[in-house]
Amino acid sequence: MELLYLLLIPISLALPTYLVGRWKPEFAKYLATLTILVTTIYNFILWFADFTNPSTNYGSFMYNYTKSWVPSVGIYFSVGVDGLSMPLLVLTQLVFLVSVVSSYYIKDQQGTYYALLLVLLTGVTGTFIALDLFLFYIFWELVLVPMFFMIHIWGGPNRKYAAIKFFIFTHLASLVMLIGLFYIYLEAYRNSGQMSFLLVDLKVNLNGVSFKTLALIFWLVFIGFVTKFPQVPVHTWLPDAHVQAPSPGSAILAGLLLKMGGYGLIRIPFWLFADVVDESGQHFFDSKEGHTIRIIIGFIGMVSMVYPAFIALQQDDLKRMIAYSSISHMGVVLLGLAAYNEWGINGAMYMMIAHGVISPGLFLLSGIIEHNTKSHTRDMSKVGGLAHKMPFTAALFVFMAFASAGLPGLAGFVSEFNVFIGLFANKELMASNDKFFIFPFLPYVIIPVLAVLSIIVTAGYYLWAIQKVIFLEQTDELENSTPAKWWEIQPVFILAIFTVILGLFPNTVWMVLDSWTQTILPH
Amino acid sequence: MVVEEGIQVIEDKFLINSAILVILIPFLTGIFLLFLRGLEIRNKTKFSERLTGSIGVAGLLGSLINATIIIFTYFNKYDAKTQRVIGDTPFVSSAHGTFKWGISLDPLSVIMMFLLAFIASVIHFYATEYMHGDTAYTRFFGTLNFFTGAMFGFVLASNLFMAFVFWELLGVSSYMLIGYYWPKASAASAAKKAFLYNKIGDVSFLVGIAYIWQITLKAHHPTLDYHELTNLISNGTISINQLWFPGLLLFGGAIGKSAQLPLFGWLPEAMEGPTPVSALLHSSTMVKAGLFLLSRIYFTFVTVGGHYEAFIPEGDAALTATLITWLGVLTALCGALIALTATDIKKVLAFSTISQLGYIGMAMGTGQIHVGFYHLVSHATFKSLLFLCAGAVIHSVHSQEMKDMGGLKKYMPYTYWTMLIGLLGLVGFPFITNGFYSKDALLVAIKNSDIPLAGLAFTIALITAGITAFYSSKLFILTFLGTPRYDKDHVHPHKTGIRMRIALIILAIAVVIESVWWAVGSIGGLASEKINKSFWNFEYRLGDLIGIHGAPFALIDTIPSILAVILGISLAFGMYFYQIPFLISLKEGGFIIKLENIIANRFGFDKLIYVLAMGPGMWVGSKFRRFDEEVIDGFIINTVIKDGSLKLADYSNKLDQDGIDGVVNGLGDITSELGYNLRKVQTGQTSQYARWMMFGLALLLSIMTLLYFQTFTIK
Amino acid sequence: MTWLPVSVLFLGIILILVVDLIFREKAKVYTVILSVLTLSFSSLMVIQTKGTNAGSMFFFGDFYVFFSIVGLLSSIIVVFSAWKDYSVELDLGVFFSLLLLANAGGILIAASRNFIPLYLGYELVSIPTYAMIAFKKKNRSSAESGLKIFLLGALSSAIIIYGLAMYYGATGTLQMGGDIINHSKTLAIAALVLITVGSSFKIGLVPFHYWIADVYSGASVSVVNFLSASSKKMAFAFVFQIFFVGMSSWHNSYTYLFAILATFSVIVGNIVAVVQDRLLRIIAYSTIAQAGYIVMGIVAYGEGNTFTKELAMKGILFHITAHVLMKGAAIAAILVVISSTKSDHINNFRGLFHTSPITASALAIAFFSLMGIPPAAGFYGKFFLFLSLVEAGYEWLALIGIIGSAISIYYYGKVIRIMVDQPESKEKLNSFTPINVLLVVLTILTLLFGIFTQDLAIIAENIVAQNP
Q1: Structural domain containing residue B446
Q2: Nearest CB neighbour to C196, from listed B657, B682, B700
Q3: Which of A489, B304, B673, C110 could join A484 via S-S bond, C-beta 3.0 to 4.6 A?
Q4: ipTM of this predicted complex?
């Protein structure tokens, strides 16, 4: 029941918000803020009540609520959270809270905007807590609609193209994923005779399915998740969508919608296939098929980390640069999964959380810059010397940029460090490192090494941006700018605080993640 | 640290807490000051410098007090040779391996911490006056405290993970300090350069850590703790032949941070920061971090035998040690040569730092960690003094160029004397300076080492000592002696301010104390075995504590270096003070000038780095960008998929309507002639639709007949 | 007892005609009420008569209940939209009586177990449809469409009749589910292809789809609504009856045919819709594509075991129900715009969200539903259709469906995007309360479709169980 409130409160208030907005636009804003504040507080209460005990096994679902929906095919309305989804759920509320507050600059069709925001919140929340593949897919797709409108109505000059591109890309990928989900359901049914879309049932029922089939399923769902994620070469919707979306929209897009892909990737193949063993007791991801899969996703992750980093180096638009850096960071997640050990997977999950607090901050900051420049530009070549006029914005930007570049003591570092440790500690590399100089181009060696080197590039583009935008003499673009307003700067400040907390005391979240990870790793 | 068995790990809450305080006080005061700076900006006011400066200094004094307590308690209460105070707490804990915050109090860290606390306190005190009137006074102290805190953390860390954390924090806070005057383009890019150069090293460091983790994980004992690693080596769980490669990677980190070849380009430019920052950066923080790291991970490249004998292992593992040593040697030479050509007083000192760091690296590479550390201590003391003096001079003449100075002796007596003391240390003036003894130990270490071409290395090191003497004297002459060359109408050299003066004097005293200490230990050690084995002989004692011994001090060993130093000094005096024509003509020879050009361009290392990293990076970036925009997004998605679909749609539509209509209209004429005059009621398409229908019917019928005849089942 | 639903319909026809005669100009509201009452009452009777035994010619099972009720209730939508549609207002009585007549045919189709009544039902649906298409007497394009569809419809009927004759030849019976007798393979093939072509025409599969675009853009909007919401479903019922029951033992032959037809329909329908700039033409082509999706269900049904059949049937039922709701809402919304602006050109929809939020929201949600975005109704149908395809081993066909679905986003999205743009003038549309109520109800049903899925799923299972 507990989790139902998180779904019902926002969705039931969406229509009232719209109606209130037609009557008095200001009230829509406050109503939405209040709603999200309530869900946020409620979610934090849930976290502190049940997710702070280190001895709990977070591998099982808590707050489980299951009701039969279409029993004749085994569809249930089932929600619940475990160590993987709960941190993301809290993150969802948090990012929405900061996004709704930083949306206060929007003056056009406020009612619609805030109503859509609430629908979006429902969709994202639902994706993270759904325990039934069917339900999962519903929420997964539901997210597209409000985001499409947010980009399309409140976006930048090229918003129409970006919105439809976003929609078509992600929808097409979702449908391919859907075929994968069908396979999961049908294989589980053929294998066990039980019709069920429930994740917990599927996890049991898949045991015995041939590894070849699982590999096929993996690639199908992978396409779906990786497009949302997004990784090279299916990433091109993201820079467009980010650049054109209003900055709170970008914040949600980067902070949460990307994470849905990562969550799905971990939940569906990695968690779902965790118990599948063949006759010799080998786990799927340790088998020959799984091995190939991991090398390929490691390679994709590496390319997605390096390639966008170089592109970001060449960007002039601040938001575009941050968008490419997001792709780059999501590559880390894939690398962590490819490592397939506790450091890698924990790091991957932590990266989603860390990136979830850092990148919204950066997007909101670039939004602030955009709103305060004379010609509403984010071009680094035009904006300069921001620190003279908007010292706090500048300071936060520097802070967030370093956080994103992986500065220790802040959230991003913990995950990056662990992922790299995980990559170097993966079994294949450990088995092959005696041959290091004989085969320096072994994928196990080349993937981590190139990925690590991209850290320099990451630092490079952020430093470049800081130098151009924050430092040096002030340009005339900033003549009329005033220090940022409270509702512009406070949300970023909150994110900054979380960045520090997550960076200095990662163990509170980490132990939950680790407890969860231990349940999917073979021992 | 010791590879010997029988190291005892002690839990001492009090000491650990004090050590935590040593780290935290500067951090917290730093953050508090930054917060105050925020308030200043918000309220558009400025807190009094007295207040914020005091907070800044108090932060460091707090550390110093704690450090003093620790150093005394540790050495008195425990047997530093066998007992280590270690305390740790998990940072990120996974089920099969945990990364920890950890404090380790052992001889090296305790001494380094104390040294750092002392020098940093003095520099902070100095800065309260030096930075007087700066608009962002508060920010300066905030960042400076933060920076020092980071170094404390690095020094006291008990494991590589925590070391890496603070290592990176050092990087970022140095970025803030170097870019302190951020509106200036040169400062902004210097900061960026420093950070990026460091980042290259950091990546190497990170990979090194990962490899060590991998190796220990393979041995079913994942750890990054220094003392556990040494235990693993000593009980044979892992061998040095596994560790040489990670050792090399960790050294890669040190190259960046400690400005070894080829990554030294950032250090001279780091001069863009205020002088106290340079003083701190060059003496006991930042650049020393890399070398300190080497002294902590020496077990990856040298083996320490049962009885105090450090030797370079056979096989692959020797490569690391050789590389470290030779890079050190070359860095020492290059740094010194560049320092020769530099005209900016701070740059001379900066390059001399690089050169001295090379020396230290060289000693560490030979396995004589204690010798390296010995010189590290000397260098930290006199180099901080030198920078502060240089700062005082700059403060006074408002220029950093030595050509604008000269004859300052009578205006700035204190600075004159203190700088003299510092420079003597740097030169290694025989018998009376700390630099002399530590440098001598270095030279002996390299001479006796089994590094390939050790003789050549020794010779180069010796030449470097001569060059050092030369440029140090040159600096001294051009600054304080001779005739004034500054613009007398505008510049009025004045005495150094009181607080700056006190700071200079304190550091000078420190240099003197060290000099006396080193001298008593070394010379006295010759006379009496008792003194030799007492704490007076710093080198011996330190070696004893960490289990490595080099050759004892011997007068005969000092002769070459004494000669080199005297030669260097006399040449400099001859050339710049007495201006002997022969020597000047030597200087102005065509070949020398050419050489000077090459050297002044830093042997092209900066360019090389640019050509190797920056240029291709940007080039790749632009290519990737074009590929992304034009091929992936442009061609595949927009042209092929989007435009292609739209074209296809257009075409299909035409086929569906016009195309059929076209066909229909053509055929329709025939049909009307045939008398099926349906066109009269404007339903011209109907017959064609019917035609298509029949066509489809026939088609399906044929398909079924041809292909699926067999598929029918008959019951 | 058995024929009560049909009797109710005929009674309604008489009453409507009488009322229309008596009240003339004022009869509009009364005829509407009467039609709605008749249709609802007839639906009730359908439920009542479920399971009654009526010999070998008829079977009153779940298939009968479902398709009769879908036909009847979707006709209510038509009634509402016709009320608004001024082009038919003069002859509303006649229009409604034709509508009820067609429904009687629909019930006949849904209940048949013999080809004779099945074909009669089919004609009973078709002939009133032709009349309704030609209903805009003064409008030339309407009359033209009427004639066109009449002629072509006659042709398709002839083909079907011919096919049925072949069927008789191949099996020796007109009872559904006959087995092929020896040495009659050729006849069977002929029967199969002829019937397939005839029915493909009716449900608008490529390449027998040409009439749809013309008729949809030529006829009056309420007739379009009838065609797509109601008559189309009856045609599908006809097709299902023939193939699921009539040719149930021939299944491994017709799956190929329908796989080809579905592929063409989905691809052509979606692609051609991309470049249309009139809403009704978009709807027309999207109808072709949607028919393609439903036909995919036939493919899966024909290929599989009971489990697959059940999945396919669920997909079909969900999709058909959803189709009624979303197409009904979409066409009713278009009707609102047309009645104000007199054109269905896409530019007339610019800024609709600002001038008429209810209409625009209904249209947008209908379109999202047509795209297959959850939780709208269209998603459930597509989900199960694709699921059954994968289960039946037709992954490639599912992929084609996916590609079609992705293309469809473009043209539906285009309309939605135009609707959210700022309007050229702030002028409000004429609002008409009953239509708004209809839109709201349909939209809510579209969004809450998930609630009915279990009931529909059980109906689908029953149908599969009841089919031989």
Answers
A1: 323-600
A2: B700
A3: A489
A4: 0.88
